[in-house]
Amino acid sequence: MYADDIMIFFKGKFINIEALQLLFQRYALNSGQFVSPSKSTVFAGSISSTRLHSIAVKLGFGIGSLPFLYLGVPIFKGKPKTRYLRPVADRVRLKLSAWKASLLSIA
C-alpha cells in the first residue's frame, strides 16, 4: 500500500458522508494533504444506484463497479468466486515454484 492510498468502508447514509467530508477537511488542515476528487472513486455494495449517484455527487468522486483490482488483489462483495481468486492463486504458485527452484542445488 502506498502512503497516499486509503480505502474507507462506511454505510451509505448521508450523516456518514458528512462525517467523512469533515474528516477529509480536518486531515487536510492538519497535514497539508488534500483528497483529490478526480482520483477518488466510490464503490457500493448494496445500495440503490440513485443513492450511489447522490453520494458520488456530494463527495465529488467518480463511481466504480465491483469487482476491481487494488494493488493486484481482487476486491469484491459477497462469497469469493473462483474467477476472482484464481489469478492470485496462480501468482502465488508461480512465486513458490521459483522459490523452490532457487533452493535446489545441483550437487
Description of the molecule:
With 107 residues, the protein is mostly helical. The protein folds into two domains: 1-65, no CATH class; 74-107, no CATH class. Helix content is 48%, strand content 9%. The chain has three helices and four strands. The strands form two sheets. The chain has a two-stranded parallel sheet with strand order 1-2. It has a two-stranded antiparallel sheet with strand order 3-4. Strand 3 and strand 4 (73-75) form a beta hairpin. The radius of gyration is 19 Å and the shape is elongated. The chain starts with 13 loop residues before the first helix and ends with a helix. It comes from Trifolium medium.
Give the overall shape: elongated
Number of helices: 3
Tally of DSSP β-strands = 4
Query: Beta fraction of the residues?
Result: 5-15%
Q: Runs with pLDDT <50, length 5+? A: none
Quick overview:
With 107 residues, the protein is mainly alpha-helical. The protein contains three helices and four strands. The relative contact order is 0.10.
Give descriptors for this structure.
3 helices; 107 residues; two-stranded antiparallel ribbon; RNA-directed DNA polymerase activity; RNA-directed DNA polymerase (Reverse transcriptase); 48% helix; transmembrane; single chain; mainly alpha; 4 strands; transferase; membrane
Please give the structural blueprint.
Blueprint lengths: L13 H18 L9 E2 L6 H11 L2 E2 L4 E3 L2 E3 L6 H22 L4
Parallel strand pairs: 1-2
Antiparallel strand pairs: 3-4
Protein name: RNA-directed DNA polymerase (Reverse transcriptase)
Keywords: Membrane, Nucleotidyltransferase, RNA-directed DNA polymerase, Transferase, Transmembrane, Transmembrane helix
Organism: Trifolium medium
